[in-house]
TrEMBL record:
Residues 16-56 are annotated as: Disordered. InterPro entries: PGBD. This is PiggyBac transposable element-derived protein domain-containing protein. Residues 19-28, 46-56 have a biased composition (Acidic residues). Pfam families: DDE_Tnp_1_7 (PF13843). Residues 107-352 form the PiggyBac transposable element-derived protein domain.
Amino acid sequence: MDPRRFYRGIHTIIKDYPDDSTDEDLSDDELRRNRGRHLPPLLIPESDESDSEPDDDILLSQLTSSSTRASRAEIPQWRDGFLERAESELQFTGDVALPANVRALETPFQIFKYFFTDDIFKYIYEDTNKYAAEKRPERICHISIKELEQFIGICLFMSILQLPSTRCYWNENLGHSKISTVMSCNCFGEIKCFIHFNDNTLQIPKGQTGHNPLHKIQPFLDNLRQRLLTIPKEEYMAVDGEIIPTKSRTSMRQYNTKKLHKWGYKNFVLSGSSGFSYDFEIYTGVQGLVESDSNLPKISNSSDVVVRLSRMIPEGANYKIFFDNCYTSLPLLIYLNKKAILPLGTIKASHIPGYKVPAD
């Protein structure tokens, strides 16, 4: 590298004293003769304004001007006016009529089977028996689809009627006949040991590109989400997060002191005013969020959740969507309004750019 380019203009040269002697050991004549003999001169540059490289100046000016333009673009210009809109502009025009196959569902079991389809049980059956053969080739057990259905039903029953341990459900005093008469305790434990929702051999190791923390249950999540999307959405919906409680040790487990169940999987949900969930997204980390929304606008990690969950809402029908100050931002409101999805959310006063909220 050219020292003149590195140091730019030279203002003066300072010669240093040798390190192996001190002023006390040298006479005045020796001190004058030895000055600057051992060390190269130290170059002190002049101010940046003199003798600077033209290319560097152009680049610096470009960076300064571009950053200035970006900062100005981020600050909106507010003006006085009325926020009221004509009622015709807010009129809901969406379709909320349920399909005929959904209206035909009458019992809770029929509704459950609509979302937990035969295709789901089919790949659970295949992957479970494949895993069982790999783990115990000397004594291969064949688990049928009917047994898997019974296993899922027992798990749902256990979530309502809770006992200290699994074996208590087969206890003569504490157990329940609707469980013990359907499946033995050993059979339940065997299915619990081998049940799988996906092929482990296809999983990309952690740390490599394309790794999916939800690989083990991804087919089930995809099928469930596709069934949820077949239900027409209500006029009024909201986006919020929930905790799916778990005691398992996993990197996806979150801790939230404000939730009833503080430890669990974080799940973002798009729900209607009736309480029905139309879409969901399990939080797997910031990196997972970045990789999953490459075709959508980037606003912020929290606002992008609303962007992703609202992408299946029909545009131009004036659906109303609500969220709290965790998700609200001015760019998000602008984005939704352009799609004729009417947003409403609380926002912190400090998060309103370019506007000072008057004190109460």
